[in-house]
Amino acid sequence: MSKVLIVDDHAFIRRGVRGILQDFPEWEISGEADNGEDAVRLARELKPEIILMDVSMPGITGLEATKRIRTADRSVKIILLTLHDSQELVRSAFLLGANGYLLKADAERELIRALTIVMGDGTYVSPKIDAEFVKKLLAAGE
């Protein structure tokens, strides 16, 4: 069973993610946060294996939280969950240490697939994101 931390400033989204995961016993929700500061703190305290994190939140963004969490713990997996599909945000996400980039529009059908790929040490990108762009980005960063 893999422990998941859900981070989004909208309770509706957190409930939706929780609702999807409740049918899959291999995913245990270890906690929830509604901002980046709490995400960083809970990542340290709860030691989840994987974090689903919104990009746009008040206070520190999901990108900044990803950077801070990644600096403290290289082993935790992070999937950014967002409405934004710009190449610049995708680039920033992976350069800061994200393992996946899931568009909220794809989340209902892709969430379990994204979690499974990332937990298997893969890189996940939503179907609407240019996967070749991400492959080149990751290859350049190695």
Could you explain the architecture of this structure?
The chain has 142 residues and is of the alpha/beta class. Strand 5, helix 5 and strand 6 form a beta-alpha-beta unit. Helix 1 packs across helix 5, helix 2 packs parallel to helix 3 and helix 4 runs parallel beside helix 6. The N and C termini lie far apart (30 Å).
Any chance you could write out the topology, listing elements then pairs?
Layout: E1 2-7, H1 11-21, E2 27-33, H2 36-46, E3 50-54, H3 62-72, E4 77-82, H4 87-95, E5 100-103, H5 107-119, E6 124-125, H6 131-141
Parallel strand pairs: 1-2, 1-3, 3-4, 4-5, 5-6
**Helical stretch count?**
6
Structural class: alpha/beta
Element-level helix/strand string: EHEHEHEHEHEH
Which fold name fills CATH's third level, the topology?
Rossmann fold
Per CATH, the architecture is 3-Layer(aba) Sandwich
**Radius of gyration computed on alpha carbons:** 14 Å
Taking the alpha carbons of the first and last residues, their distance comes to 30 Å
The global form is globular
Q: Give the strand order, joined by hyphens, for the main sheet.
A: 2-1-3-4-5-6
Strand percentage: 15-25%
Uncertain regions spanning at least 5 consecutive residues? none
In which range does the helix fraction lie?
A: 40-55%
Mean pLDDT: 94
Largest sheet: 6 strands, parallel
Give the name of the CATH superfamily.
Response regulator
CATH class: Alpha Beta
